[in-house]
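Data deposition worksheet. Section B asks for the primary sequence of the deposited chain exactly as it was used as input, without tags or linkers unless they were present during the calculation. Section C holds the resulting structure in token form. Section D is free text for depositor observations; keep each observation to a single sentence. Incomplete worksheets are returned to the depositor.
Section A, Depositor: J.P.
Section B:
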Amino acid sequence: MFGLQFFSWSSSSPVGFFLLDRPPNAYDMSPYRLPIATLISPRAPACAAFQRRLNSTDNKLPWMVDNEFNRERAAVKHHAATTSDLWRKLSIYAVIPCLILGGLNAYNLLNEHWEHWEHMPPLEERIEYPYQNIRVKSFPFGDGDKTIFWNNEVNYHHKDKAT
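Section C:
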């Protein structure tokens, strides 16, 4: 005997575990064909009904013994549930409003900064050094000379004034 296999398409035996009389090949254990066999399987509806029945019963299992170990596990489970609930509430009700307020503050500071720069005298002519704005080839957008984040109010580049 060569071992156990869950599905075999070359055998007429029912779906399930059985012993093979030959080594398994790649066709028998194909992961692409297994989902098809599970859909065709006559046991699928019974399994689904059984699972639904278990989900509607009480969480306390009749065979579970009430001892210190199980009480500690239940306490850890309860603590994990309350802690995760706390962090979920903190994430929704504290972090999101803080991000919104921080964004509004940054926006207001940016506007104040530009208003301050508008009242200043114009800047002197900037020197274009040869190591600035090096272009090996043109960019595929715009006029080909400016980067995608180019801001005409901040960035400075004149090809004819390079020293």
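Section D:
Residues 15-20 have pLDDT under 50 and may be disordered.
Helices lie at 34-40, 44-55, 68-118.
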